[in-house]
Automatic annotation (TrEMBL), chain A:
Pfam families: BPD_transp_1. It is found in: Cell membrane. One of its GO terms (biological process) is transmembrane transport. InterPro entries: MetI-like. It comes from Neobacillus vireti LMG 21834. Residues 105-284 form the ABC transmembrane type-1 domain. It comes from the Bacteria. The chain crosses the membrane at residues 12-32, 76-102, 114-136, 156-176, 210-231, 255-279. This is ABC transmembrane type-1 domain-containing protein. It is a multi-pass membrane protein.
UniProtKB/TrEMBL annotation, chain B:
The keyword Transmembrane applies. It is a multi-pass membrane protein. This is Peptide/nickel transport system permease protein. It comes from Neobacillus vireti LMG 21834. It is found in: Cell membrane; Membrane.
Amino acid sequence: MKRLLSALFRSALVLSGFLFIFNLPLILGIGVDSVEIHFDQFWEVVKNNLQFLFQIKDDMYLSLFKQLDITGSYQYTMSILLISLTGIILIAMVTMVLIMIAPEKIRIYLKNGVNFFEAVPDLLIIFLFQFFVISLYKATGFKFLRLYGVFGVKPYFIPIITVSFLPLFLLLQFLIQVITEEQNQLYVLYVKAKGIGRLRTLLIHMIRNILPLIVLQLRTVIWVLLSNIYLVEHMFNINGFTKQFVIIIYQGGDFASLVACLLMLSLPLLVIEAAGWLVSKRIKGTEAVSL
Amino acid sequence: MRKYRKTIIGSSLLLLLLVMSILYPYYGPKDFNHQVLVKDDQGTVIGRAPFPPSENHLLGTNRNGEDIHWLLLYGAQFTLITAFGVAVLRVLLGGIFGIILSLWAPFLKSYFKDFFLTFRYIPSILLGIILMLPIVGNFSDAPVSMIVTYQIMILVFIGFPSVTLFASDVTDELIKTSFVQSSFLMGAGRLHIVRKHLRPYIGSYGILFTVQQIISTLHITMQLGLFGMFLGGRNRAGVFGYDSPEKPASLSNEWAGLIGQNFSEIIRAPWAILSPVIGYFVVIVIINFIKKELEENLDGFQVVKKKQKQKKGARAEARSTARRGLFEFVQKL
């Protein structure tokens, strides 16, 4: 009973936080020479929004949402997300192994190179890719790569590359850091003393041990990917899910549509968080046993 | 032991840029060498803005025929001051609130997290757009100072929850240390703890947080610029050559605005957009160097602890705290 009450209270809190954040512009009106604060107006709109959210029987409910091409664009955006994510994980793993078995001197340079990308803004990468594709087209006259999503075309290749460029380095940096820490573990020393090669230790023992940490880190990767996808779809004018989202915002769509869109957008994050939760629970469970 | 070489060099570079930008009216051309059409001796038009980079125009010109390098120099002050100001405000408000949250009202922390749960799931760029749209989304007749105040409030608000939670986490970790615990046992008040035990940490963590927040503010202003949410609002005069609908231009010529107003020109005038983006990149790289150095200095405390922790079985947990840059003292006896 107590847990139920606290769960109810917490979800009410989440909802009110959501309403507060999204109606914040209404509190802060701009006057002639001061920023004005109107609470009454804010309260009215919040009440309206709440009512709207629960009027499921109304015909107008989610009307804009139903008009838009939600399923198609959502599929597109999510497939970009998934392809990029799998690509990132695979490439980051392979590169990490390559860097770790490289000779000491080269490894330091490579690590510094990877760390350098931490500071690169995502917009720079997107613009450079755009610039590159355009100059390629100008130089050759052929359209190898589709950039813009005009006339309902949904390009895959360039958006995926552009979107996953920076997260790849993010994950790679994390992997290198974790595996370097893992090398200090006693079992690594033991395995080395037994005469097992470096590659075998790395591939079979260490990677298996850092897998849970990777799952936990994937949330950040997905987060960066999502915001990058948002930027790329806006800049390349692709008719993806975020485009529908922008339409809803700019056309002043109803509150319920906004909520539905945001929920759909944060679905991947929720999934990965659930996975992370399971993994950490398993770790704790095994550790309780081993102790 | 601690070195601040990169920090000193980096911040003096940024300061130099800022001073040059503020002093711009005293030495730079007032109209940024405004020149749309180039005519030869007979008066026939031989060229039209945007011009590519050349000897006369170091970084080229934009569609309005203004020199990009002068615009960048002039606009730097707004970008830098906003980033710095927003970061300081975020850290001040968030830090104070976080410490209060941990020391005086720890039961509120989970509620605070719930209330701002939205920030965990929605990228800040989306929030920024939604929150700024009513004010900056269109040409507005409101005074510029008010628009800027509003924008700064929103920018501070976007970063506030994460800073608060982070500060609160750090405080929680510090409270667990033996010196604070023993101080509590001997009857110290909370204010005493803050004044005597936490203050040395507040300084170093505060600076580190500020530097991190400067980077994140730079990122978000840049992205908002792309969506036309310029700092200081939109300029009705607009971009030359677009009559209806008018294309908004940045009023202050800050860098994000330059990106936003030139972003559709990437095919005709890539220099007009790549220059401000690269400008951002350089600033972010400098600040990142500073951040790295500060973090390394903070890590000085941490080295001893890592060795000690590895004895214990709680590996995953130990790591996650180590990565967050938290530390505990060795003298735990």
